[in-house]
Design goal:
Strand order of the largest sheet: 4-3-2-5-6-12-11
Number of helices: 7
Radius of gyration: 19 Å
Order of helices and strands: EHHEHEHEEHEEEEEHEEH
Shape: globular
CATH class of the largest domain: Alpha Beta
CATH superfamily of the largest domain: Vaccinia Virus protein VP39
């Protein structure tokens, strides 16, 4: 399954040209949400968090990969960018000791309701310091792509390395690059899906607009969730953010700077080889020999 936040006309219905959104390149976009709560700026995903699980409804493509990882690596797992706990909850149910970290209080509120027994931490993957080491550190489904700058990426890999046990493994999953990522200008606004939302007793339709910024290695993404209740007016929740595009070489370099070496490069959740036709870019890392020895001595 090719799962991309960036939609393509072949897989979604093009419904018109997206209007260009004024921006400062490389700067984080402020959230603009209709019906947004007063504290929305402090949690830019607050308005769309209620729809996140609906967005990923039925998506379990990566779950078995992380289950196999847990069996092989060991019981202690740190998930960075855990969102609403889609992966962490499954691993915890399998008996693993999972810590989930996310920057969004609204996402974590959903995660805590889903799996109260997990340790959920509201923190930043660029500066996290738990003071513990884990058998596995995972960043699923494009979580790393929310880091806009090179400094952000370097800082996150330093955090990953600091929390990885001497014999531990890292798994980073991002979208593989596609031709449209390197074509500047707004892409068509597309409808991703329209689904019934039982919790809100309403039909929700997700629309996505993307504008690649190839010179910066970024894509400016806008999500619209149109909510039509049985009775009453349509309302729209909107979220804008940047996503970074990664090549395999960029991830390898970021890992090396943090004392991590690539141990696997895969193009999908069945761990098939990565190539130009891959939908995902999944990279596994371990400590380099010198860094591993230093961690063992510290223990």
């Amino acid at each position: 399954m090719r799962f991309r936040i960036t939609p393509t006309p072949q897989s979604a219905l093009a419904i018109g040209a997206a209007a260009r959104v004024d921006h400062l390149r490389g700067a984080r976009l402020a959230s603009r949400v209709a019906d947004s709560p007063p504290d929305a700026p402090s949690d830019p995903f607050a308005a769309v968090a209620p729809f996140y699980d609906l967005d990923l409804e039925g998506y379990e493509d990566d779950i078995e990969m992380y289950r196999r990882l847990g069996e092989a690596a060991g019981p202690r797992v740190l998930e960075l960018g855990c969102g609403t706990g889609r992966v962490a909850a499954v691993l915890a149910a399998d008996g693993l000791e999972v810590t989930g970290v996310d920057l969004s209080p609204a996402m974590l509120e959903v995660a805590r309701a889903r799996a109260p027994g997990i340790r959920w931490l509201e923190d930043d993957m660029r500066s996290l310091d738990i003071g513990e080491r884990f058998d596995a550190v995972i960043v699923p489904l494009g979580g790393l792509q929310h880091l806009e700058t090179v400094d952000d990426v370097v800082a996150a890999f330093e955090v990953i390395a600091a929390h990885l046990d001497a014999g531990g493994v890292v798994v980073v999953d991002v979208e593989a690059t596609a031709a449209e990522d390197f074509t500047a200008g707004p892409q068509p606004l597309v409808q991703h899906w329209s689904r019934w939302w039982p919790e809100g007793d309403a039909r929700v339709t997700k629309l996505v607009a993307v504008e690649p910024l190839p010179a910066d290695g970024l894509r400016e993404v806008t999500w619209h969730f149109d909510v039509q209740p049985r009775e009453g007016p349509l309302r729209r929740a909107t979220q804008q953010f940047m996503l970074r595009t990664f090549t395999a070489a960029e991830l390898e370099l970021a890992g090396r700077l943090a004392g991590l070496e690539v141990t696997g490069l895969f193009g999908g959740y069945d761990l098939e080889p990565y190539d130009d036709g891959s939908a995902r870019l999944i990279v596994t890392f371990e400590h380099t020999d010198g860094d591993r020895d230093a961690h063992e001595e510290a223990e």
